[in-house]
Amino acid sequence: MSAAAHPVTSTSDPAPPAEGLQPVTPGASDAAPKQQQKGQGKEGKKDKKDKKGGGGSAGPLELNPPPEFFADRIKIFDEYKAKYDKWVSGELIAV
Quick one: pLDDT at residue 32? Predict the structure, then answer.
């Protein structure tokens, strides 16, 4: 490595702008001057966001008819709930 200090700023001249090139995006060269003429940039503009809650139907919240496995799951839950309730009542009496 060199012990010499690195320059903080560049002393070279900037390259001249390219001429004769077509913009990649159609209308891109027209859009930039219009925004600058109006004096409104991204800083001064605040867009309102649309709220997505409560507007319109998202479909039914319940399946009709319910799937067959729902009944099996409810039966299993009821069995475990009965066992748990019995266990809890036995714990409270023992204490």
Answer: 53
